[in-house]
Amino acid sequence: MIDLFRSENVVVRSVPAVDLSRWVVTFDNYGIGHGFDRSGFGQEFLRQAGVSAIHVMGAREDWYQYPEMAAAMAAVRTATAGAERIMTYGSSMGGYAAIRFADAAGANVVLALSPQYSIDPQKMPSETRWLQDSQRIAWRPEIDGRIICGVRPVVVFDPLEDGDQVAKIQDDIDIWPIRLPYVSHPASTYLAETGLLKVLVLQTLSGEFNAVAFEGEARRRRGTSGFYLSNLATRQPAYRRKLAFDLAERAVNTPPSSPLAGLALARLLSAEGRHDDAIEKLERIVALTNRAPTYLVSYVDALVAAGRFEEARPHAREAVEALSHQAHLHAWEGALLKHLGEDRAAVEAVERAVALDPQVQYRRLLEAYRGGAEADDLSQRRAARWASRVLARIRPVMRGIRKA
After folding, report:
1. Residue 31 — pLDDT band, cuts 50, 70, 90?
2. Would you call the peptide bond into 256 cis, given omega within 30 degrees of 0 as the criterion?
């Protein structure tokens, strides 16, 4: 491995294989890790496949809004000069970069999984999944302006979750859209589970990729994916509760067994008031996933729904400590502490949320909590509603953190 470029914000790392005629240039997804003492996106897979790779690694989740990106991409072009195929590749935040930097990297192929056009609220006001990050990032017009891309990217996405973002991309450039409803964000989770991710990457790189045939095959494999079935289950309206349970049960019984599939069933059980069953399933999932924060959040949610607030407290604290930079988790913990009657601790939790992200919802919640006894009933109702909205918003973000 050789670092072709390094600054405090960006590292461009080369991992060449025997074949230097084809290169894949990857970009990090959200939550892959801070700093540079780690592997790049897709590094081990590409190494095992014998594909020469360059990994562009950002220091943080900044959507690559760095002044030195032009110099970083120049290093990529120099290293790949003379190659027959150069493909930029990324998922979610990395998909954004794969499209945005394709020309600068000298790419003649682009593969973007669940990409964004932008998360700048001025450009995409409907996008709230990364709201805290979007408000702190200094958006650079030379990077986040109108897309210019001389290549027609292959874009795989769930139109129910990322349709607005991809539509904006299509306003600027032509793409090969592969629409896979109910595979969630990022689409890489579904593709990996169904054995299609490797095929997609290698065929796109080689030039053998057929968009129509691939989309047909990806849709045909939906019934073999517990992840897909669980997403479909959670999308069912209340009047289709029986169908939702049937789909969730099928997801759990579809090999390979996945904690994500079990999570959908547990949530349905909790919503149905079958709290003991839901908590039992979530306890197993939390243990199997080595207490991953996203599953701890759902476990706490189920305990709260069952009225077991005191029992939920240490697990909530653990989830917050694991992701202490996420403002909405501090607000979520504050709601639980308010239920426990710990008014001072609840205020302090929401103060931490406001310090990280001073958006109006957190400030209003903080005002209600500071109101003390006179505003106690109102605070409780607001806390319950806000906790529910926070949990709904964190889950797609956490999916992005889980899956490369």
Report:
1. confident
2. yes
What pTM value is reported for the model? 0.89
The widest CA-to-CA distance across the chain, in whole angstroms, is 72
- Place 377 in a pLDDT band, splitting at 50, 70 and 90: low
- Length reported for the chain: 404
Q: Does the domain made of 292-404 have the CATH classification 1.25.40.10?
A: yes
List, for residues 265-301, the tens digit of each pLDDT value: 999 999 999 999 999 999 999 999 999 998 999 999 9
- The one-letter code for the residue type at 126 is S
Q: At what angle do helices 327-339 and 293-305 cross, to 10 degrees?
A: 30
CB neighbour list of residue 145: distance below 8 Å, 6 or more residues apart: none
The residues spanned by each domain of the chain are: 2-220, 225-290, 292-404
Distance, CA of 404 to CA of 401 (rounded, Å):
8
Nearest to 15 by CA among 82, 94, 76, 90: 76
Residue-level pLDDT at 255: 86
Is residue 155 a contact partner of residue 112, using CB atoms and an 8 Å limit?
Answer: yes
Q: Which residue has the tokens 């197993």?
A: 284
Q: What is the pLDDT of residues 175-192, one digit of tens each?
A: 999 999 999 999 999 999
Cα–Cα–Cα angle for 303, 305, 308, nearest 5°? 45
Half-sphere exposure of 252 (CA within 13 A, CB side): 15
SS3 state at 207? coil
The amino acid occupying position 162 is D
Q: According to CATH, what is the number of the domain 2-220?
A: 3.40.50.1820
Amino acid sitting at position 207: G
State the average pLDDT for the chain.
Answer: 92
Give the tens place of pLDDT for each residue, 235-262. 999 999 999 999 999 999 998 878 988 9
Say if CB 226 and CB 260 are below 8 A apart. Answer: yes
Please, are residues 80 and 86 in contact by the beta-carbon 8 Å criterion? yes
| Distances 60 to 65, 94, 137, 239 between C-alpha atoms, Å | 10, 12, 11, 43
Q: SS3 of 227, please?
A: helix
| Residue at 186: amino acid letter | P
Q: Give dist(CA 8, CA 36) in Å, integer.
A: 10
d(CA 173, CA 346): 48
Measured between alpha carbons, how far is residue 54 from residues 72, 93, 146, 203, 403 in Å? 11, 17, 25, 18, 20
Distance CA 201, CA 114 (A): 14
